[in-house]
Model the fold of this input.
Amino acid sequence: MAKSNTDEFLQNNQQYASGQVVHKAGHPGKQPIQPSRRVAVVACMDARLDVEDLLGLQTGEAHIIRNAGGVVTEDAIRCLIISHHLLNTNEIILIHHTRCGMLAFTDDLLKAGLEGDPAAEKLLGQATGRNFVSAGKASTSPVAFHAFRGQLEPLDSPRDGKNTERLEWDVRRGMSAILNHPWLPTIGADAVTVRGFIYDVDTGKLEEVKYPGPMGSIG
Ligand SMILES: [Zn+2]
Done:
């Protein structure tokens, strides 16, 4: 089987993790609108992830969609449909990462804190090390924060088996959401492929998540 772009980016990642520079900075000149490697990446907004650097991507090669968690949200799906059907990408890469903030709260906790629950305010203040200031108001949006499933842990906790599993669950949920979306084809000549990874912010290395597999338990 021919080597995919994703395989090539994984080789770039090994170079990146060993301290080499693969992504070239600087304006490359005129380029087409379609990403030249036909790749779309969905990654967390975490400040420790330089997506172009860690994959060795060059300007013009890929779409990069980022949000809190690298979650496959309704808006990420919107971007992926446009990316594929209008701009010709066919390889999707999902990137979650160790020490992610989305491991450290739940949707209910953050909502209750924002709405003025003193217990939630106190917990969030302790968890983040900043004074959590409640709005004291309810809102219908966002509908969800998409905090990761599973037992809460302190912010920026080092990697262990448990939190790695929680990251894997969410990567698989994202892969499943893409693979089962009616507007993202997965068979035939126009098919897209999806692979999911966990990026270790301490080592700079990407590790692939096996799919299919567990997508989380209510515990
Ligand atoms: Zn994150």
